[in-house]
Amino acid sequence: MIEFRAVTKRFDDGTIAVNNLDLVVEAGTITVFVGPSGCGKTTSLRMVNRMIDPSSGTILVDGKDILSVDPPMLRRGIGYVIQQAGLFPHRTVLDNVATVPLLSGWSRSKARGRAAELLELVGLPAELGKRYPVQLSGGQQQRVGVARALAADPPVLLMDEPFSAVDPVVREGLQDELLRLQAELDKTIVFVTHDIDEAVRIGEKVAVFREGGILAQYDRPAELLARPADDFVAHFVGKDRGYRSLSFVDASGVEVGAVPLVQVSEAVEPSGEWRLAVDDRRHPRGWLAPGTTVDGPLVEDVLKPGGSLFEVGQSIRGALDAALSSPSGLGVAVDAEGAVVGAVTATQVLAVIEGLRESRG
Q: What Pfam families would the database entry show (predicted)?
């Protein structure tokens, strides 16, 4: 657990970066600090590992005042991931990951063995261990940065805008990877971002900071979107917060109906309805438009892109997005293996959303 008790940081020029912060980060959770530039979120993070010392107040990690611990020793027990990974360019990937274990007195063979295990854990092939950072993509570098931070198995992991320098597709993949790792490792993670979408996607709790280093609201993502504390928070989380809050409502109330199917590589007759093409594992491949004539076996070149999919049991936002993005108006539901279960319409999903709204009064 990390606890901030009346913590203030005032710089020499009089600027107050963090103002009387009281906040508890529960053990084994991901807590996200978010807010506009200059709001004190990164300063708050960097005070935890004493990259910056507080001007007043107390920060406790597992009940111990951090000011009572030698800074280098404190940092060896806290993983730290920064933007663009901050890897040593003259060291191989494997030696980058092994850095903290070596500093902690591990033998080189033991440290490298641990590094190899972590590369696999973060989804990187073993052969990348011999390369240098410049030979990696941005997303690969960030994965190495996470592996390095985990090398000595610290209970606490600090992440300062680690994914902001990569493109949106890679960024979403890294977010998924972080959530997967957390499910396995159960670390106490403090994550800084300026992106509210990233904050509500990965955070179990989100701390919104306003300028002047003031904590505006500290809450679970669903509560933050549904009930902003004030106009600042409402403006910061965005006008579409109602739609985004659907990510925290499961789609169990949406009844999945049958969907007409055709098989890729088999002959099909013309039809006046949209039909979903699947492969031999019932994975969706696209839509066959009404009236389409196919000479010979069905090939994917004649299919319309299928829009997004939603997995049964996931959020109602996913169900609505699948229906709205589908050329047929039918949102495709799949199981955990990606096989088609059925489909829903936007009208069905909206009816369930309206029912939920009325039940809440």
A: ABC_tran (PF00005)
My answer on whether 153 and 23 are in the same domain is yes
DSSP 3-state of 246:
helix
Please give the residue range of the domain that contains residue 69.
Answer: 2-241
Order of strands across the sheet that contains 205-210: 78-82, 156-160, 188-193, 30-34, 205-210, 214-219
> In this predicted model, what pLDDT tens digit does every residue of 54-89 receive, in sequence order?
999 999 999 999 999 999 889 888 988 887 667 888
Instruction: Give me the residues paired with residue 261 across strands.
Output: 276
Q: Which amino acid is at 196?
A: I
Which residues neighbour 74 within 8 Å (Cβ) at sequence distance 6 or greater?
49, 50, 61, 66
> 78: which 2 tokens?
């806290």
Residue 253 lies in a domain: no
| Whether the predicted pLDDT of 361 surpasses 60 | no
Cα-to-chain-centroid distance, residue 260? 35
d(CA 90, CA 271): 63
* Model confidence pLDDT, tens digit, residues 262-305: 999 999 988 999 999 999 999 999 999 999 988 889 999 899 98
Q: Is the distance from CB of 11 to CB of 205 less than 8 angstroms? A: no
